[in-house]
Amino acid sequence: MNTDKDYIKISKEFISILKELSHTHSYSSKTNLFYAGQTPIVAYLLLEGFIHLTKNKKTISILDAGTLLGFKELMNNEQVDADAYIVKDTKVCFLDKSTIYEIFAKGPNAPLYSYLKDLLQLREKSTT
Amino acid sequence: MNSPTKCENCISNSSGIFCELEGSQLSQVDGHKVLNKYKKGQTLFVQGNHPFGIFCISKGNIKVTKVGADGKESIVRICHGGDVLGHRSLFSDENYTATATAMEDSEVCFIDKKFILKTIEEKPSVALNIINKLSKEMGSAETRLSSYHQKNVRERLAELLIVLSKSHGINDGESRTRIDIRLTREEMATMIGTANETLIRFMSEFKSEGIIEQDGKTIIVTDSEKLSQWANLPF
């Protein structure tokens, strides 16, 4: 999560597929999702509302609907370099490791397989 | 891809829920877990939010607190290495009813719900270990509940010190137990349901009676026999 490219925007088509794989949840209060130096415990797809990314208590980015946050860090066990907190009443759906492994295990014909693989490979290429 | 510390090398593995698993079974847990370090004051989860897995503590102390309608925070329990967190909400399919916060720099693994349910189906020992932990927690909660009704503040404080010396006690010489956890007076007061001032008064009494000593913020139990008498424990 070091560049703007890392904030992945998901198309409406893929959002509806992801929503079927996970439940939608609304946050009842402002909550820290993760802290700088940690690996996100799930990936978050923002459906409504905002997530703030902060460094040294300064907001460096505000993410809005359609953003997939923490996916590459989760799957690569990488640490993020910013804190993230979610604003009250923001709606998200979660993608945990098991769900992502299930998609990969279904093979290339499964919805999202190529899309998610591409996201990971893009990351690997950019870091090599 | 970075590799987090393996479960087999975890310092709390022997007291954790996966302690009976070996080899490839533990490797599966390694592949699904997310290991994170939490600094003092950072939250693992917040009351009212949705649970999506369980947290296994590898190192450090985590306090579980509830915030009342008046905004006051009270400590429900303190968890340490080998304990799990978030399991009750996960299995009851409810939102978190409490907040978990690191009391010191801690290492905690997260395991998602799908994987933990699958593991429970395949490995009954994991389910039994979780049941064992839930049973102990329920026992502690029942004891605390009855203490609120049946014991006075002095007895409740003595009981709290016994519980802490069992869970966090380090032998500090002849019949002396150093309680290796730093709690503020306010935190201790909420744990026994009393006011700050009352707790401080009784702490002074315990010290003047030679039951406890203080080394900075650390409490040392110097007379455990008398402490048990003051706790009025049923034997």
Automatic annotation (TrEMBL), chain A:
Transmembrane segments: none annotated. Gene3D superfamilies: Jelly Rolls (2.60.120.10). SUPFAM superfamilies: cAMP-binding domain-like. Residues 27-104 form the Cyclic nucleotide-binding domain. It comes from the Bacteria. InterPro entries: cNMP-bd_dom, cNMP-bd_dom_sf, RmlC-like_jellyroll. This is Cyclic nucleotide-binding domain-containing protein. The lineage of its organism: Bacteria, Pseudomonadati, Bdellovibrionota, Bacteriovoracia, Bacteriovoracales.
Automatic annotation (TrEMBL), chain B:
This is Crp/Fnr family transcriptional regulator. GO terms for cellular component: cytosol. Residues 151-225 form the HTH crp-type domain. Residues 17-137 form the Cyclic nucleotide-binding domain. InterPro entries: cNMP-bd_dom, cNMP-bd_dom_sf, Env_Response_Regulators, HTH_CRP, RmlC-like_jellyroll, WH-like_DNA-bd_sf, WH_DNA-bd_sf. It holds the Pfam family HTH_Crp_2. SUPFAM superfamilies: cAMP-binding domain-like, Winged helix' DNA-binding domain. PROSITE patterns: CNMP_BINDING_3, HTH_CRP_2. Transmembrane segments: none annotated. Keywords: DNA-binding, Transcription, Transcription regulation. GO terms for molecular function: DNA binding; DNA-binding transcription factor activity. It comes from the Bacteria.
